[in-house]
Amino acid sequence: MASSAPQLGSLSKEFSCPVCLDWLQDPVTLPCGHVYCQGCIETTWGTLGVAPACPECREPCPDRRYAPCRLLRKLIDQARGLSPGGAEEGACPGGRCPEHSEPWGVEGGEFAAREPATSENLPFLPIHQATGQHQEELPSAIAQLESSLARLRTLKTEKEERIRNHQATVLSLEDHISTEFGTLRGWLAAREGEWQERLRRAGSAQLRAMQTNLQELAGKCQAAQEMLTEAQAHLPQQSTMEFLTDIKSFLDWAKQQLATPCGPNTGSQSQTLGQFKGPIQYTAWKNMKSILNIDLPQVTLDPATAHPCLVLSEDRTRVRDGHLRRPLPDTPARFDFCVAVLGAGAFTSGRRYWEVEVGEKPAWTLGVVHASISRKGKIHASPSKGFWVIRLRGGAELMAKDTPPVVLRPQALPHRIGVYLDYEGGQVSFYDAWGMSHLYTFSARFAESVYPYFCPGLYDSAGNSTPLKICPLP
Fold first, then answer.
1. CA neighbours closer than 13 Å in the CB half-sphere of residue 156
2. CA 407 to CA 320: how far, in whole Å?
3. In 128-165, which positions are buried (b, 16+ CB within 10 angstroms) versus exposed (e)?
4. Under 8 Å between Cβ of 9 and 83
5. How far apart are CA 431 and CA 418, in angstroms?
6. What pTM did the predictor assign?
7. What are the pLDDT digits (tens) for 384-419?
């Protein structure tokens, strides 16, 4: 038996099923030539979602055809009769080790199972060892999965809340827009009605005056006609001197009538009605400020806060870096490092809007700051330090000094900046004032009074000498 063991080991490879790795039971051959147990191939083909094919070469078997191998079955039975333990025990070279669940092999003429895996050999473990190992790891894996699931649920809840908040914000803004434009439409409709009524009253008054004038002229014409008829009737009876006297009297009367005005003339009518053909839109626009829920303050600069190098105009609406430091008192209110200056008035409530002309300056900073900001030494502007500002550097990089900073990319760099402050609403917004296109909005909670903030940038060898200019608003 020992001498035949290597031969049996070789036969076991030929007589074993590629699926179950055991002796072939009721062997069948597929069209491709590979041989399997009849039960194994039927089980494989019966798996849900698996197309019938050869498990080894993957050649399709759409008609599920195979042929029994009776001769091979006899040979296998004879080979099993020669194997250790006898055919009746089912021990066979192509079987599996009951401890390791691995195929049998032949080592030194004896049948043996492959050794369990260690860090040095093949990656196989006995089933009971592998099961125990994974059972120990299972609680930790379940805990990690539960933790991940909890985080995912938290993120899902946060995302749903953000979506709800976003939808609520959009609906609120829709109502706000409708209310604001509804107010404008209502005011414009009322003003239009007032102007139409004024025009009707003025037109009716002018028409009555013209009709009265016409009646007066008709009366004068009738009187002149009667006098002329009477003069013509008495003409043959009068002497030459009497005729001339009557004619002179008639001419004097006619001149007097022509010199007497009959109601308003055409010029006065044009003056009366011309008011309705003037710049109506501009007039209405100027009057519209009465309904605006926003203050347009006349912002000026506070010289007591200005850096010693800054030069302010006499009306305190323009500021530039003069490049030379002046001997000014270093008070707590004055900036000593950053070339900045604050507005003269503090805001503690309401909505405010002002505009600043920056032109083509390559560097500047504008915005709103808390009254308590640091004015000494180098300043790192951010909302946490009481700064809500945007700045331009190098004539190209426009940035909002938020946390983190945000680079702004408008279609074109603005030449005039609009600053909007809503104190109660906690909002500071910036606009390109020419077209009112939005640049950036900060959300804030103001804990104290705030001031407009202006930094014209460094002199830069006269490359940035143009002043910032606070623009008057109508």
1. 6
2. 25
3. eeeeeeeeeeeeeeeeeeeeeeeeeeeeeeeeeeeeee
4. no
5. 5
6. 0.55
7. 999 999 999 999 999 999 999 999 999 999 999 999
